[in-house]
Amino acid sequence: MTAIIAQLVISGLLLGGLYALVAFGLSLIYGVVRILNFAHGTLLAIGGIAASIIFAVYKLNPVLIAVVLVLVFLVFGYLMHIYLLDPLKKRNPFEATIGTVLVTVGLLLIISDLAAEIAGPTPKNIPLEFHAYIVGEVIIQRAELYILGGITLFTIALHLFLKKTWFGRAIRAVTQSPLGANICGIRSKQIHAQTVAVGCGIVAIAGVLWSLKFPVDPYGGFDLTVRAFTIIILGGIGNLVGALLAGLFLGLAEVFTSFLWASDWAPAVSIVLLLVILVVFPRGLASVRK
Amino acid sequence: MLEIRNLVVDHGELRAIWDVSLDVEAGERVGLLGANGAGKSTTLGAILGIYKASGGHIRYKSAEIANREAVQNVEAGIALVPEGRQLFPEMKVRENLEMGAYPRSARGKVAENLDRIFDLFPILREKQNQNANELSGGQQQMVAIGRALMSSPQLLLLDEPFLGVAPVIIEEVMAALNRLADQGVTFLLVEQNIHRAMEFVERAYVIENGRTVLAGSKQQLLGDPEFSNKFLGLD
To answer: Distance between CA A166 and CA B107 in Å, rounded?
Structure first.
């Protein structure tokens, strides 16, 4: 029984860590630009599919694939902000909100269909050679270790970036007080575009890591976006540690729900959690901690 | 140092400033006084570049700065301590101060300016690793002033620095401001507490409904029956 629980915990941490990576990008973007990007999870799917195709064709090392995709997604995110999101800010608040939903949902539909048209509708992943380590009665695949290592390293790197660099601190400053940031001489418009770019770059890394273990479906991104929303509400906007803990919690909850009940019910966990939090703690769990 | 002529500022379709003119010479302490909503904070915001001027001129060291970006004005030596402080609540005190040195021209003097601010407000040295939202109102005001000083400004714009601050802390802040004035910093102070403001400034302008209506030295204003009636409650 202990071995089964340990196995479930590893799976939960793996899944939750990947969810947290998706939420990091979404949380940064929402914290700074105040825009809910409904296409965020779909960008992970596109990243995963692109990584699978590059691996199949060029047999490149996944780390190199991640570097290439991060650069592409950084440019995509920057242009997305300049041409799609920023013009909406000139509208009145109602039009801007509705416009944001329409633009990001429209983007989700277009890029999902494009990906399905180009790469085919079947789920894809990076088929690394199977290699497993056995510790007692627990089996750990090499791909799982890569993913856990990648999540850990990336989370530390992102934490240091936000705490120690001028750019990272500017992102936090704009999140916490846009006017205060302006007074300090931070160009908010520039930071907005750069933050959307960074958010998209993060989801590219999540896509590559995801495709090392799980097949990626061009139409599966929206479920991930919903999970990322849940994690942000659980962990607090712009709160990296909160998002990580919330992601791990959600991953563990889904894995244990699948084991104890049925795998069909796992996606419902995030929705139920979201509803409970919104009703019981309308300002998020981070506000309870304070 | 600073020359404003016939400034007009609109907030959307609402005109906040109709006609403000004022001068500040290097090393002076000048007050900008008036009732709530008169346009004092908007004037300071327009000087720093937060609000766009719809008309008129703002010249700093003879250069036209109306509608320049805030970052350019901070690099040129202007800093603002805003009303409500606008700190970064979940960043450490030290991080808040360091953000004041965000413009590239200020980054080389971070350690030197931090030391200067910790000398000015010793309590901030003790509290530097606490989040800004864990400080008292007075301590937060010290952080806001310290953050503005991190870019080594020559012109410091202060918006209601004594609002919500305990009297004992006001004395400490006032002493620090006097020390800065002795070091050659120029001040433009917005304050609704006229008695406090008149303790600090040498000259003042009075704004009403977005227009400059009165100007003079401290002695001239205190001797002006209109000023005394309106602001000091004296008949």
So the answer is: 10
Residue A60, phi-psi category: left (phi > 0), alpha (psi -120 to 50), beta (remainder):
beta
Could you tell me the CATH number of the domain that includes residue B176? 3.40.50.300
B91 to A44, A96, A173: CA distances (angstroms): 30, 30, 8
Model pLDDT, residue A195: 94
Task: Give the SS3 label for residue A137.
Answer: coil
Span of A111-120, A268-277, B133-142 with lowest mean pLDDT: A268-277
Contact state of B99 with A182 under an 8 Å Cβ cutoff: no
Contact check, Cβ <8 Å, B88/A173: yes
**Domain containing B116: what range?**
2-232
Provide the pLDDT confidence category of residue A207 given band limits of 50, 70 and 90: very high
pLDDT of residue A289: 54
Cα(A247)–Cα(B235) distance, integer angstroms = 67
User: What are the residue ranges spanned by the domains of chain A?
Assistant: 2-289
Predicted confidence (pLDDT) per residue in A67-92, tens digit: 999 999 999 999 999 999 999 888 88
Nearest residue on chain B to A177, alpha-carbon basis? B88
| Distance of alpha carbon B19 from alpha carbon B10, whole angstroms | 11
Its pTM stands at 0.87
Give residue B197's pLDDT: 85
In A, which residues are within 8 Å of B85 by CB distance? 180
- The answer to whether B134 touches B65, Cβ cutoff 8 Å, is no
User: C-alpha distances in angstroms, A163 versus A146, A159, A167, A170?
Assistant: 25, 6, 9, 10
What ipTM is given for this predicted complex? Answer: 0.89
CA distances to B33, B39, B52, B159 from B15, rounded to whole Å, are: 19, 10, 12, 20
Write the pLDDT tens digit of every residue in A7-33: 999 999 999 999 999 999 998 998 888
A182 inside 8 A of chain B by CB: yes
Q: Cβ neighbours of residue B134 under 8 Å, at least 6 residues apart?
A: none
Contact B107 A166 (CB under 8 A): yes
| Closest Cα in chain A to B95 | A169
Written as one letter, the residue type at A27 is S
The CATH classification of domain A2-289, taken from the options 1.10.150, 1.10.3470, 3.30.300, 1.20.1530: 1.10.3470
Q: What is the DSSP letter of A83?
A: I
Beta carbons of B88 and A166 less than 8 Å apart: no
Residue A146 has a CB neighbour count (10 Å cut-off) of 16
DSSP letters of B102-167?
A: -SGGGGGGHHHHHHHHHHHSHHHHHTTTSBGGGS-HHHHHHHHHHHHHTT--SEEEEESTTTT--H
What are the pLDDT digits (tens) for A86-96? 998 888 888 88
User: What confidence score (pLDDT) does residue B235 get?
Assistant: 42
Domain count, chain B: 1
More confident residue, A35 or B5: B5
